[in-house]
Design a protein that fits this description.
- The structure is a single chain.
- The protein is of the alpha+beta class.
- It folds into three domains: 162 residues, no CATH class; 133 residues, no CATH class; 174 residues, Protein Transport Mog1p, Chain A, CATH 3.40.1000.
- Helix content is 50%, strand content 17%.
- It is built from 15 helices and twelve strands.
């Protein structure tokens, strides 16, 4: 039955009112999460499209209004299970400062809540406009390293096929005409995110056959990755053939966006050849008979459950965030062990890290061997002051750093994986190359995997109610002729000094075992 005054069926009116109310309340409850998303949209060009995601989703819903008129919404409380799961993920991400997971969980809570009010039948039909909201989450940073590696490999191999001699060292490579490096802006992640977002929307609007949609989405992901490799190769070739006069400055980026625009135009133009049209259905039989009054009551009960669960979660998380680890005494370097002696000389350079006064930067010696120790302690980890963060680096003025991958190292009576790297650090007018081992110590546990560390941080806030974390690095001078000797120095230092380093951290926090 249609309400003659409004032209909207009563059950649709009550359902839409409940959806809008629930969305606004969830937005208010998780305002800090939503605000964090908007901050990234505004300050980082890669994610500026985030401002358009909600308007696009609403526009897609409006485009389907004639189709929706054939449906009869009925709440599906089973979706509340997904709401609760999303709330659980949001808690863990919030407590550990994993912003992207926190934001994904927030969008998931909103989508699952709306789905519970609209019901299975309507939600299935509106799956794309609802799931499209996930594109509002600024994510993709973890794709930068592998895409930088792919771009470097693609470019170097293409140059060699062209007949140009190339010497490669990690993400750096040299040609007879000059030197090049693949930096984050060259990774192609910006193109990939833009292409995937546009491709998914275009596939939904243009096609109605599932395999065509999936094929076009796959192409919108693969094509920009390959195109970025071609773009990088073309830029290097332009620079090489012009004697490094062109394609080395701002024109470098301009060429990139022009090339990307042409590639996307061609992709969409080809895709339009197989465009499909879908006529709206006349009527869709609901899964079960239910009066308008019953729908209205159930939809508000479902909305109340979702809102109350969110209120309780936000309140409980706020209480857990109040856990603090006190610093009982200054963080001091250990005196030494097994022949390693703390030196009075300063380290060759200072580390770069997020704000904290609790830092060890010390030089140790054993005979002629030298090892530098860096410990950055965060007693109360939070966003912007945490151990597991890419802003914690061995030095601010890095000339080059090449990852050597993780490896297990003996530290006292246990084995711990460390991230190994070769780093060239600027020192005054010159530079020096060092072998670097890095790892984390989160709530008393040493580890190297960032995801494992964040999970352990969340669990530790619940029990034994610790919030501390430390970023640890050791370095030693590296000579290409004695790489094995440098690794042996660090191995001996880690085996001898790791228990002393742990003890120094625990003593600072007043933890005695």
């Amino acid at each position: 039955m249609i309400d003659q005054a409004s032209g909207i069926a009563p059950r649709w009116r009550s359902t839409l009112t409940a959806c809008l109310t629930t969305f606004l309340i969830l937005l208010a409850l998780f305002w800090s999460t939503a605000q964090g998303m908007a901050y990234i949209w505004y300050n980082f060009e890669t994610y500026t499209h985030g401002f358009l995601i909600l308007p696009i989703s609403l526009w897609l819903l409006w485009q389907k209004r004639r189709h929706l008129a054939a449906f009869s919404p009925q709440p599906t409380p089973a979706f509340l299970i997904l709401v609760l799961a999303g709330l659980g993920v949001w808690v863990l991400a919030r407590l550990t400062g994993v912003q992207v997971v926190e934001q994904l969980a927030f969008v998931g809570i909103v989508v699952a809540s709306l789905a519970s009010l609209l019901g299975w039948q309507v939600s299935k039909f509106l799956a794309f406009p609802l799931l499209f909201l996930f594109f509002a989450v600024p994510m993709g940073e973890d794709l930068v390293p592998p895409m930088m590696e792919f771009t470097a490999t693609f470019t170097v191999e293409a140059l060699r096929l062209t007949g140009i001699p190339v010497y490669r060292d990690g993400l750096w490579f040299s040609l007879p005409s000059g030197n090049w490096s693949v930096v984050e802006a060259c990774s192609g992640v910006r193109y990939l995110i833009a292409s995937a977002t546009l491709g998914v929307m275009y596939a939904y609007i243009t096609y109605h056959t599932l395999w065509k949609r999936l094929l076009f989405i796959a192409l919108s992901i693969v094509v920009p990755v390959l195109a970025n490799g071609v773009r990088a190769y073309m830029i290097v070739m332009i620079g090489h053939l012009s004697g490094m006069e062109y394609a080395t400055g701002v024109d470098h980026l301009i060429y990139g966006w022009v090339f990307f625009g042409v590639v996307m135009f061609i992709l969409f133009w080809i895709g339009s050849i197989w465009q499909e049209h879908d006529a709206p259905p006349e009527v869709v039989i609901p899964p079960r008979a239910m009066s308008d009054g019953t729908v209205g009551r159930r939809v508000w009960v479902t909305a109340s459950i979702a809102i109350l669960a969110a209120v309780g979660t936000v309140w409980g998380t706020h209480m857990a965030e109040g856990i603090e680890s006190e610093v009982m005494q200054p963080l001091s370097p250990p005196a030494g062990a097994n022949g390693w002696i703390l030196q009075q000389d300063p380290v060759a350079w200072q580390s770069a890290h997020q704000p904290t006064p609790h830092v060890i930067e010390a030089l140790f010696a054993k005979g002629e061997d030298r090892v530098q120790l860096y410990v950055v302690l965060f007693p109360q980890q939070r966003q912007g002051a945490e151990a597991i963060n890419q802003d914690n680096k061995i030095a601010a003025d890095l000339v080059r750093q090449t990852s050597l991958g993780p490896d297990a190292v003996e530290m006292g009576e246990r084995s711990v994986a460390v991230n190994r790297a070769r780093a060239i650090v600027r020192q005054g007018a010159g530079s020096a190359e060092h072998l670097v081992w890095q790892w984390y110590r989160v709530a008393g546990r040493s580890l190297t995997n960032r995801y494992e560390g964040k999970a352990w941080e969340a669990l530790s806030r619940l029990y034994p109610r610790r919030a501390d974390g430390a970023w640890i690095a050791i370095t030693t001078p590296l000579d290409e002729r004695e790489t094995g000797a440098a690794a042996q120095r660090l191995s001996d230092f880690a085996r001898s000094m790791a228990p002393q380093i742990d003890a120094a951290i625990d003593a600072s926090l007043g933890i005695i075992e």
